[in-house]
Fold:
Amino acid sequence: MIELYTWKTSNGRKASIMLEELGLPYNVHPIHIGKDDQFTPEFVAINPNSKIPAIVDTDGLGGKPYTLFESGAILMYLAEKTGKLMPQDTAARYQVIQWLMFQMGGVGPIFGQVHHFERAAKEDIPYGKKRYGTECRRLYSVMNAHLEGKKFFANDEYSIADISILPWVARYEWQLVDLNDYPNVKRWYDSLMVRPAVQRGMEIPADA
Ligand SMILES: N[C@@H](CCC(=O)N[C@@H](CS)C(=O)NCC(=O)O)C(=O)O
Structure:
């Protein structure tokens, strides 16, 4: 059984979409980050960095419980555990890892800053909005150019690379982005958002 510690955010949804796609049984433990649940001693014991998502695989490596945080590591672990959504072939595998790292090092941190400066900051900081908004739109342009003539980010196969990027693009309105300006991203996004597993994963935790 996978114990999933999460909240209804872009990083949290990566893990829940992945679990839904794999059809693995899992229990959801809501960590209300707006109420500081991430700083409780119980959760810090699972993730010393106090961020969701995190998992405990009760049937982990060697049959022992295995604890993991960082959404990219969780996606890779679950892909390896099941042999799904990441290819075995080394060249193809690194294409997936490359776009996963693009998300973890670029899309996530930059889009997150856009969300902060546009929606959460208690003061209006035009420099922050401009700096992160410009980089966000540049990343959309990179994705749009890459997806020309392609169905998915890597190897023309659905993978954890797509799952990592999707919940961040799902917040395009928060990023003040019109997806019609990036037609290849829009086509990719529309084709994935109709997947039942994606729709279920986007709604976890149900009561958040
Ligand atoms: N690099 C981490 C980032 C995780 C992260 O920033 N999670 C946010 C929610 S999307 C969080 O837990 N924020 C709570 C806080 O910063 O106190 C990952 O991909 O797992």
